[in-house]
Amino acid sequence: TDISDWLVADNVGRTITASVRVASAAHDPANAGCVGFPKLEYKDGSDTLIRFAETGAGKFTGDGTEKAWQEITVTDTIQAGDVGAGHVLRFVVVEICSAGGAVMFDAWSVVINPPV
What we know:
By secondary structure, the chain is mainly beta. It has no helices and 7 strands.
């Protein structure tokens, strides 16, 4: 999801919080080695990645069993280098599941604090 209209000079120093609900279903549980998490990507006008922010240790981790919905959040602060003509901020959900199974995502949100 592209939320680039927040990348303006007036917003440098403001906090962005992005969250998504993550689960693993009984019919196709995420196996050990599967992870799911939200990520914020900052790109310049040429679509080159400037930097990113992700959840770190707070990632959803599969273990081969059904897991109930849980909310995972990433928080980041807009920096001066993130702002520029054509710069893009994207909210991305990442699933890395080389061991089989699936991670499910639902009910995402992205907010800027304090609100615009």
